[in-house]
Every structure is written in structure tokens, then in C-alpha cells.
Amino acid sequence: MTDMPDTTLTSDPSHESPIGDHSDDAAGYYTLGSPLADTKAPGGPIDERWDTRKFEARLVNPANRRKLSVIIVGTGLAGASAAATLGEAGYQVKSFCYQDSPRRAHSIAAQGGINAAKNYKEDGDSVHRLFYDTVKGGDYRSRESNVYRLAEVSTNIIDQCVAQGVPFAREYGGLLDNRSFGGVQVSRTFYARGQTGQQLLIGAYQAMERQVAAGTVTQFTRHEMLELIVVDGKARGIVARDMVTGDIETHLADVVVLASGGYGNVFYLSTNAMGCNVTASWRAHRKGAYMANPCYTQIHPTCIPVSGSHQSKLTLMSESLRNDGRIWVPKNKADCTKDPREIPEEDRDYYLERIYPSFGNLVPRDIASRAAKYQCDDGRGVGPEVDGVRRGVYLDFADAIKRLGREAVEEKYGNLFDMYARITGEDPYAVPMRIYPAVHYVMGGVWVDYDLQSTIPGLFVTGEANFSDHGANRLGASALMQGLADGYFVLPHTIRDYLADGPFEKVPEDHPAVVEARDAVTKRIEHFMTVNGTRSVDSYHRELGNIMWEYCGMERTEDGLRKAIDLIRSLRDDFYRNVKVLGTADSLNQSLEKAGRVADFFELGELMCIDALNRRESCGGHFRAESQTEDGEALRHDDHFAYVAAWEFAGDGEPPVLHKEDLTYTAIEMKQRSYK
Amino acid sequence: MRLTLKIWRQADQQSQGAMHTYEVDGISEDMSFLEMLDVLNEELNAKGEEPIAFDSDCREGICGMCGLMVNGEAHGPEVTTTCQLHMRSFTDGETITIEPWRSSAFPVLKDLCVDRSAFDRIIQQGGYISVNTGSAPEAHSIQVPKEAADRAFDVATCIGCGACVAACPNGSASLFMGAKITHLGELPQGQAERDIRVVNMVGQHDAEGFGGCTNIGECTAACPKGIPLDVISQMNKDLRTAMRHGL
């Protein structure tokens, strides 16, 4: 949507600069494990690797497929598309979601669009360029084989979705329209007005429902996965709670897929849905799946600010607004409570235009977000005071309305202005909008190899739940692309290589590993139901979120992260002793659901801080105050940190084990981003 | 602001429910309706009373998970989802009645949560285009006139919240079905299954216990996405055509 300027690239020798005595900030918080390698990616030229892997992945005879079973947790783009595709292939699929229908998964809220290297605009796009843009956008912290494959299959996604009836925007000739989007110079984004995620998800949902009717997919709605079942080292099922009856159910299968989304709600306030959580991933982590780069968080600059302590979630507005809106704060603190229209031009600080004269209001997401934080920290934020600080900056369309006319602005941004007016009760045509950054997406997730298989054999992880494609920063319109690439075109090929070892021995329900998993779930629930403390789950979640946002948000420091780890640990102890969950375990109980999720967020939050503490460099969405240039820009340290940090769970109270997967680039050269 | 809330409470699907009265104070007009209920729930929890169960997820008006009858209107006094309704639409001292969706095809599970799985089962009966992954032709081999594409999009914005059913005196899901049938029927890709789709979906609709449409129009008035009433005419037309074709 936004025609973001391309990044100027320079080779910067400072990347080889030593970081002195600070190369091991997280010493004492972790132990170092053996290096990790992705053993599944074939070698050879990058454009042949996926073909090679598809050819080498063994086949499963159609007659044998119906004897093989797959559990898929989550029904967003990555989960629904995989369920549909594996169902079509003839496997027996069980699909789980916590919502009341698969169609509600949070992919539905994605606004902007989906990238694909179709080159319909003949503007120089290609698979290689999409690959290049994505690796560069990820600040050279993603795995090149995976990203190349993503770019390759992107074109198939559009074909598939069009055939399903996804109503993409079209030109008068009846062909598909494209627009440009953040961080690139070509128009490769396919869109369905501001509701692309909705339309793609409904397409995948319908394809999945078709398989439900065909009998290959069984769907379990209002079900939450609470434990992974690992038998003889292999993922063989899940323990799930029926959220209506409270029944604890065992579901066994030959392979398990987690498509359970991201964990942005560890910050309490985010643009995620209320129910988004890390539990499926975290339970798998505790059973042996490594978590990779958990500290990589994307914070989106154009969200509607917090209006009070009652706030339950944040709402994103498309960053296209920055094309015509000008961002400013008052120069004088005394003006912060004034009607912005009465603040004269000379008393306004258009800080992005001032600091970044060549890119102005169109600097990338991470830079725009951090700059807003600095203004508000400096006491020049605007809007309501929440916890003593005004966290908002103006996004002003007065100039645009003068230049283009109100009608043109309405045509371009009308739906966003309406949304803003509904939420804030203010008229953005008359008064400047207020915006503030919010947590939006996590690039980190469960570590997977090229096959999307985790460190637990038989456990595959797709979509936002895995870490693989976006490095330290995700480009706009790439999340939808990755979710559908994984589910429609990657997983169905790689999973068959695993399933080709079947038929697998049946796991009896009274197998010790199954009993252990069920007992663990029952014990946890019993604990929450019997603490009978004084504080609500939400109050703990909110406090945890504040800690994460303050110390592990837009800017992270060594001292802050250490402090956060201590705070999280003591809050977590208090939570287990003093949380109050009413109602019963054998009925619909939303407090109980939240208690389990928040318990896992505590552990994840601590690991995120340790990961951020370890990574003493700034890259993409991760900004360490200690690692910046003289001008205050992010400074990578490729000589120390060009690796994926994959964390192994070592037991409760034990420091996690860090496994490093070195990132090597054969098809692209590592460069420094610069926006001045 | 201070409010009196009359809220439907029901332990589970089998139990008898009843209206309960609660008082809340200190509500700001910037709160969303659901945040107001969050505040009430925190207070109930502190008092040792079980919080009220209600559904919501995205809280930005697109997932379709939330949905309450507020003062007898589906999603309340504004044309939007319950999560996008804000307290500035109410006045200090007001009494607000809050109930779950009203429809026998949407049984109450607990308090304000209902079971809308009937919608999934209707979609399973043909609310799709049969195309297996990987078998799609190149996207530009299918041209769709912009007008048809725009119309398909407009009706495809249905979020499946069920407000149309809750608002309809007959408890009909015709607007929900009409939207899907029109979305797929507008597109060249959707023609092959057009007849069988409408026949099977309508059959499932009736089997689920939804009522028939008598053109009252409450559905479209309550629809947060503004799905127009004429999708129902389109559905009926498609049904007649299918019957003429012998289905």
C-alpha cells in the first residue's frame, strides 16, 4: 500500500568492529549447546534447491494415505490451507481451533495484501527480486534457502486463491490489480480492498470445509491444545481441552502440525486477537522443540493509541497513511494539552522530516516507531495521560486535504478515517489523528528445518508460529504469503517424506507418555482452580505486558533486560500463589483458559529477555541501545551475531541451552541499511 | 458514567437461564462495550462471583466472534460489531439489557456465548469452489469484469457473526447464505457448481432449524458489514434456476 522508499545500501565496515568485553551479555542466564544445522536444505544453486527437495522427498501411495493421520493445531492461513491440502491428498486430518469456527483465526484481520512475484506490472519484479527484498528487509537474519522457496511458490498462491474465488481487486480489463507496499520499489501486492486477510482466510476455510464434507478433515472447534504427546522421541498427538464441557481429550496421530500463530500477546496489548497465545508452541518447546530468535518482535508505528487503563487491545491502521499524513509533536511541552489546531506551525516539530530529511515520514516501521517513543519519553507526547505519560503523536492530514481536497483524501483513506473516528470519537478530517506504535507480529518462533520440521521428529510448525522466513523484520504483505506458502505448497511436500516411513505403530491410550501428558494437564488445571488467591488472571497479564513493553519493547538495554528478568520471575511466583480463578473446570471457563495462557507467557517472556540480552546488536525489530551508530541508527554485528539463536528448554528453573545455527549467504551479500 | 446492566446468565446448554442485574460505575465513554464488560468481570471476580462468559476475539470488527443483543438490537444501537460499539453511544445512568443471540439454531452454551456451528455446516454443503491445491490455472487466464469482481467482494465481506439470524423475527439465515451464493455466483469460477451449491446450502439451512425469509429486512439493517437484501433475491433466483434444471 505504501510506496516506501528503497533502502540505500552501503557496505559498512563497522559491522566487523569488535564488541569488546560485551560479547556475552547473557552469561549466567544460559548455557551454550552444540551448534545446530539445517540438514534438510539441499545444496546446489539456490533456484534448484526446492525442486531438488521436492523430488527427493519420498512419496506416499494414495491407498496408504488414508491410513495416515495428521493433527493440525490452528486454522489461520497456515493451518486451514494445510488441512485442506492434506485432506485433498487423502490423509486423515484432525483440525483444532480455540475459536467457535475455523473462519475466525486472526489471519482474518490482515489488511494490506499479499506479495507475489508475478511481475504483472512488468516493472522488473522476479522471484529473485522478491527473495532479495525479503532477505534485506529481514536485516540479513533469515535463512536464504527458505526465503528463496517462499518467493518461488508465491506465484502459485495467487493462482490457487483466484481459482477458489477470492475476490482480489481488478482493473477494468478484468485482470488483477497490484499495488506497491512497504520497503520495495515494484508493485507486487495483490489485495482485496483493506480486507485481504479476510478474503484469503475465507478461501482457505471454504477449501477446508469442503474436505470436512468429504470426510477427510474432522474439525474440533472450541478446543485448545494444552500438551504435546511425544512417544519414543516422536510427536504422536496432543492433549486438548473441550472448552465447552471442560473434558480433557487425547488425540493421537502419526504427525502433528502447529499452525498456532504468534505470541505478540505476551505484551498484553497488541494488535493480536484476544485469544492469540503461545501455549501450543510453548508446550512443544518444553517437550524438546527449540524456540528460535524469540526476541524478534515487529512493532507497527501507525496504531490507535491507548485511551486508558481499561484498554484490552490495540488497533492497527494501514501504514499507507504515512504517504500523505505528516507526523509531529509540539516543540514545547506546555503545548501538549492544547488543541493541536491552535499550535502554530513554528511550534510544531515534524521530527521524522527533521531527522530523516530524505525519507521523512516514510522511514521503515522500526525507525518510525522508535522515534515516536523518544518524543513521548521526552514529555512531548499528546493525547490522554495513561500511567503518567502521554503516548501519542499527531498524524496530520491538514496539508494533504489542502493539497488534494477532502474528497481525494476520503477516497484514499476513508475507511481508515471512519475506523479511527469510531474508536476515538474524534473527526480526523478536522483534528489531527493521534497514533502510537503497537506490537503487531513476531518473527521469532519454533525452530524448524527446511522441511518445516522442529527438533522433535514428527512435529512440523508453519506460519507465524515458526521462525523461518522473516529474519529480524518482516516486510508488509509477507505474512499472508508465508502462511499460505507453508500450508498449500511447502508442508504437503515435506510432510510426505516423514509419513513415507509409515504405517506407524499405533500408540495405545494408556501408553505412559500419553498418561503423563494427560496428568500434567489435569494437574495444572487443578492447581489454577485451587489457588484461590486474590488477583485476577488479567491483572497479572497486564503487569507482565507492562514489563515486556517497558524493557523488551522498542528499545532494549542490558540493565533493563536484567531487571525485566527479575521482575518476571517474581511476578510469576506470585501468580502461581495468588491467582484467582473462579467457576469450575468442567464447564466453559474463560478465566481458566486465560490462566494457562498467561502461565506460558511468563516463561516465554523470560526467554525473550534472555535472547534479547544475548543479542548485543541491533537488527530489524530488535534494537539494543548499546549497539547504535553515532547518529542513533541500528548497528548490526555480523561477525558475532549472524546466527539463529535456537533455545532448548532444560527444565524448570534451569538456564536454557543456546544452540547457534550460522547464517551463510551464497546468493546475496550482507549489507547495512541506511535511511538518512 | 454509571450504568445498570441486565444480563442473561445461564450455566450451560441444559440449564434454565435468567436475567441478572449488575451496577457498574466509572465507565469512560472511550471504552468499547466489551471493555465495559471486562470492567464488570474484574469486579465480579474480586467479589468472588464467576465472571460473565461472552465471546470476542479480534476486537476490531472482522472476525465475527462477538455478538450480543444490546437493548434488543443485534450488536446494539450502531451499525457495527459489538466490539466496535463504544460507550459514548450510551448515557450516564442508563439501563442496558444484554442477551445472547436469539435463535433456536444457535443454542446458548453459557451466559452470552452461543453455538454457531450451523454456519460451518451450511458452508460444508457447497459454500466453496471445488479446486484442489495445485490444480489452479494461471491467475490471469480468468478475466473477471471489474463490476462483477467488486460486487463479489462487497458481499464476500460477510463475517459470519450471525447478527442477521438474531435480528430476524423468523430466525432465518437467508442473508448469510445469499451473501455466499452471490459472492461465488458473480464469478466465472463459481458457475460450474452454481445449481448444486444453492440447492444443498438451502437444504442444510432448513435442516438446521433456521426459519424462512419473509422479506422483513431486519437482517440487512443489523448487518455490521452492510450486506444488501438483494442477495436473498439472488439466492431465490438461483434456486429457481436450479429447480428448472431438474435439481
Automatic annotation (TrEMBL), chain B:
Gene3D superfamilies: 3.10.20.30, Alpha-helical ferredoxin. Its cofactor is [4Fe-4S] cluster; [2Fe-2S] cluster; [3Fe-4S] cluster. Coiled coil: none annotated. Residues 149-178 form the 4Fe-4S ferredoxin-type domain. Keywords: 2Fe-2S, 3Fe-4S, 4Fe-4S, Iron, Iron-sulfur, Metal-binding, Oxidoreductase, Tricarboxylic acid cycle. One of its GO terms (molecular function) is 4 iron, 4 sulfur cluster binding. InterPro entries: 2Fe-2S_ferredoxin-like_sf, 2Fe2S_fd_BS, 4Fe4S_Fe-S-bd, 4Fe4S_Fe_S_CS, Beta-grasp_dom_sf, Helical_ferredxn, SDH/FRD_Iron-Sulfur, Succ_DH/fum_Rdtase_Fe-S. Pfam families: Fer2_3, Fer4_8. It comes from the Bacteria. SUPFAM superfamilies: 2Fe-2S ferredoxin-like, alpha-helical ferredoxin. GO terms for biological process: respiratory electron transport chain; tricarboxylic acid cycle. Its EC number is 1.3.5.1. NCBIfam families: dhsB, PRK07570.1. Belongs to the succinate dehydrogenase/fumarate reductase iron-sulfur protein family. This is succinate dehydrogenase. It comes from Nocardioides guangzhouensis.
